[in-house]
Amino acid sequence: MKKLNALFGYGFLGGLVILVDQLTKWLALTKVAEPFKFNQFVSFNVCFNRGISWGMLNSDSTNVFVIVTFLIFLVCCGFAWHAYNQFKNEKSVVLETLIISGAISNIIDRFVYSGVVDFIVLSYNGWAWPTFNIADAVIVFGVFSLLFVETFGRQK
User: Of 21, 60, 109, 118, which is the active-site residue?
Assistant: First the structure.
């Protein structure tokens, strides 16, 4: 019963991440027709990333897009296998769930929009971070948190 409750919780968390990410992308696509400055640090500008992080491997080529998407899918499956093994060993997989659900949401974009919808721009004093979305932020948070936990000790 304990594992079933945990599985439900992970499923709920993952579903929530995907729902919030897809909802914010839909809002960006339907409400942000042109770049919009929220304040001096945050603005919204919709763009499509057909590559990986920070636009690396971005290409108009369908073949490159399909190969990159397939590789991302394989990495996601491998990481899901790792999370499954952690779960079987009764370890928390909250951070893994965040990473996987963010990746799944971005994979959904690749099939629905032929690219990942990015729209959040952080900037300061002429410097701008590459455009990203909620799923990207969740993935980065999950990866850095997982690295921290694995470096300084994982609790059951």
Answer: 118
- Please state, in angstroms and rounded to a whole number, the distance separating the CA atoms of residues 139 and 134: 9
> What DSSP designation does 137 have?
H
Q: Considering 21, 60, 109, 136, which one is annotated as catalytic?
A: 136
**Does 136 participate in catalysis according to the annotation?**
yes
Residue 87: half-sphere exposure toward Cβ, Cα within 13 Å: 21
* Known active-site residue 109: no
Q: What is the pLDDT of residues 57-89, one digit of tens each?
A: 788 889 999 999 999 999 999 999 999 999 999
Nearest to 83 by CA among 146, 18, 25, 15: 146
The C-alpha atoms of residue 98 and residue 138 are separated, in whole angstroms, by: 6
Kindly provide the residue ranges of all beta strands, DSSP E only, lying in the chain, ordered along the sequence.
36-37, 42-49, 116-124, 127-128
